[in-house]
Amino acid sequence: MERNSKIYQTYIQILKRELIPAAGCTEPIAIAYCAAVARSVLGCIPNRIHVQASGNIIKNVKSVIVPNTGGLRGIEAAAAIGVLAGDEHAQLEVLSHVSDEDRSRLPEFLQTAEITVSEARSEHVLDITVDVMLGEEKVRVRSVEEHTNIVLIEKNGQVLLQKKADTQADKELPDYDLLNVEQIYEFAETCHLEDVESILKCQISYNEAISNEGLQKNYGANIGKTILTTYDAEDVRVRARARAAAGSDARMGGCELPVVINSGSGNQGLTASLPVIEYAKHLNSPREKLYRALLVSNLVTLHEKSGIGRLSAYCGAISAGAGAGAGIAYLNGGNYDAIAHTIVNTLAIASGVVCDGAKPSCAAKIAVAVDAGILGYEMYRNGQQFLAGEGLVLKGVENTIRNISRLGRVGMKETDHEIIQMMIE
Fold this sequence. Notes:
Elements: H1 6-18, E1 21-22, H2 26-42, E2 48-53, H3 55-61, H4 75-85, H5 100-112, E3 114-119, E4 127-134, E5 137-144, E6 150-155, E7 158-162, H6 181-190, H7 197-216, H8 223-230, H9 236-252, E8 259-260, H10 266-283, H11 287-308, H12 316-331, H13 336-350, H14 361-381, H15 397-411, H16 413-424
Parallel strand pairs: 2-3
Antiparallel strand pairs: 1-8, 2-4, 4-5, 5-6, 6-7
Helix pairs in contact: 2-4, 3-16, 4-5, 6-11, 7-9, 7-10, 8-9, 9-10, 9-14, 10-11, 10-12, 10-14, 11-12, 11-15, 12-13, 12-14, 13-14, 13-15
C-alpha cells in the first residue's frame, strides 16, 4: 500500500485517534471530565451538581469503581472527584493527577454537596450533561457520541461553545468506512512502522503493566488468576486469556494505571492487544511482526465496532476477541484468507453476549471472547469453518461483519433498553 494513499493515511489517523491512554473505565471518566471542565468554567468548587446521563452511561457507571475515590462506585462519585480534583486538560486521564489531599476531601464533599442524577431521554446512546452551581452561578457542559466530544459549554445562559452533536457530520474525522479486512491486511503488511511505533509501544507498555497488576494483586473476581491456577499455565492459549482478563480485573477494580483503549473502551483495548502480545512471546516473534499483528487486531476491532457504535447491548469484547484472533492468525503466518476466516468463525461462535454494564464480570467475558478468537483461528488451521447461511454467517467476511453490526446496532436496541431498565429498577 502506498504511504501517501488515502487509505494508508486514513488508517494512520484512525489509529492515532483511537489508541489513546485512559485511566479508569471510560464512562465514569467521561462524567468526571465533563464535571472538571464545568468546574473550570465556573471558576470555583460548586455546592450543587446535576448529571443527566443516557441509559448506556448509567449502565456502565453503576457498578465499576472510579479511580482515586477510595473504592467508590457510581455517577455521584465520578462527578464529585471530577469537580474536586479533575484535570480538565487531561481528557480521559482526567483523574490521573488526584492527590492524597484531594482524596481526603471527597467524603465530606459527597456529604455536604447536593448531587442529583437523572436519565437523559436522548437519541444518542452516549449523552452526558453536567450542571454545576454555586449561588446564582451555573455552568452546563454536555458531551455526546464520544466520551470527550464536548458539544456545549454554557455559563449563566450564555453559550461559550456549541457544535453539532452528530460526529458523523464532522468533516475533520477520518472516514471509518474505508476500513475493510483486505485493506487492513495489506496495510499491516506494508506499513512503515515508524508511523505507528510510538502508539503501539505505548499500548504494549501500558496494557502489560495493568495486566501484571491484575495478576499480582486482588481485584474484582480475580478472573485472570483463576484461569492460571485452574488450567495449564504452560499453554499459551490459557495465558492469552488470563492476561487479558487480569487487565480487566484491575481496571474494573479501580486500578489507577492507564490503559490504551480501542473504540473508546479500555476492556476492548486490553482484549485486542494482550493475547497477541502473549502469543508473540510464545512464538519468539520479532518486534516488527508483533507490531504488524497488533495493527491487524486493532484495526479489525475498530472496523467491527464502527458499524455497531461505541455503546450497545452487544458486548464489545466479542469484537475485540475477533480482532485478537485475527492478530494471532497473522503472527502464525496467516494471510488474508486465514484472517478473514478467523473473524467469521469467532463472530459465529460468540455473538450474542450482552453488555450489562462495566463491572468485574467483564473480565470473564473477555476470557470467553479471547477463547472464541483462538478457536476461530484453530478451526481455520484445521480446515474447518462455518458456512454461509448458517445463522448470521454470510459469504464473505465483510458481509458477515455487516450482519453482526446490524445485530448490535439495530437488533439489540430493545435488549439494551430492557437491560438498562432492569439495572435502574
